[in-house]
Write a structure and sequence with these properties.
single chain; alpha/beta; Rossmann fold; 11 helices; thiamine pyrophosphate binding; oxidoreductase; PorB-like; TPP_enzyme_TPP-bd; pyruvate
């Protein structure tokens, strides 16, 4: 695969977002147009004509990624460029929250795009405030005592639209990630991938701790890897849960000082979510 992300970009040392985007972009190839709203990824990509991406990049407003991608898709189709892929690279703030209405409309219309949410579980580019993707009990600058509500399940929200393909992925499980990008690339219609990208600074990780946190999230079940086709066919891609949630929490400063009963409550939440997902896959 040809590299589509150049070196010398502005990502933080150890950034999982840049690593994830690197593999997604290489898999998508040069015949791709990217839509990148305000986010960490917008900083990494940089402004045209000095972008770190080797493909055209359009930077819309924070809430308008799916609408911009819809317009680009139709413009390309009118030029006969139906093979050119339209790729959105957006953060969780512009996806779970501010861009959700626009995203839902594009999904309802089954617009032909691949929407990739680079989920670092907060507004990390503006000071690590909480988003609706921030997990229960996680401390952020706007929830210093810990977030009192659960994380929104975006994949389930999008699957409820009956879109052709919705899936989760992680660069810590690279073969699974690349397979899903290739699979989504071959499908027409609305496709969405949510990638967990631990933020070294926002999560309180060591510079080399991003991959470990991403792997632990999957292994404890806090971020299960699965895919949903046509809104109803569920497949779990990593069924072995080999460690407790406490191992995942211990690697992050945003959970430091949690009480034992809160850890137990979070373990129960994860177990219940996993049991529900298993039922969906069995059905």
């Amino acid at each position: 695969m040809e590299e589509m992300l150049c070196s010398g970009h502005a990502a933080c040392p150890g950034c999982m977002e840049a690593l994830s985007a690197r593999h997604v972009l290489a898999c998508m190839g040069p015949d791709t147009v990217a839509v990148i709203p305000p986010s960490c990824m917008a900083i990494i990509a940089g402004p045209q004509p000095y972008s770190s991406l080797k493909i055209p990049v359009y930077q819309p407003t924070l809430e308008a990624s799916a609408a911009a991608a819809s317009g680009l898709r139709r413009a390309l189709d009118s030029q006969g460029k139906r093979g050119t892929q339209v790729l959105v690279l957006a953060g969780d703030g512009g996806t779970y929250d501010i861009g959700l209405q626009c995203l839902s409309s594009a999904a309802e219309r089954n617009e032909d795009m691949l929407y990739v949410c680079l989920d670092n579980e907060g507004y990390m580019n503006t000071g690590a405030q909480k988003s609706s993707s921030t997990p229960h009990y996680a401390r952020t600058t706007s929830t210093p005592q810990g977030k009192p509500t659960r994380k929104k399940n975006l994949t389930q929200v999008m699957a409820a639209h009956g879109v052709p393909y919705a899936a989760t992925a992680s660069v810590a499980f690279l073969p699974d990630l690349l397979r899903k990008v290739r699979k989504a690339k071959a499908i027409r219609g609305f496709r969405i991938l949510t990638l967990l990208v631990p933020c070294v600074d926002g999560w309180g990780l060591e510079d080399d701790g991003g991959l470990r946190a991403a792997r632990y999230a999957v292994e404890c079940g806090a971020f299960p890897l699965y895919e949903v086709e046509d809104g109803c066919r569920y497949t779990i891609n990593q069924s072995l849960r080999s460690r407790p949630v406490a191992d995942y929490l211990a690697a992050q400063k945003r959970y430091r000082g949690m009480r034992a009963d809160d850890i137990a409550a979070l373990q129960k939440e994860v177990d219940e979510g996993w049991a529900w997902l298993m039922k969906l896959a069995e059905a």
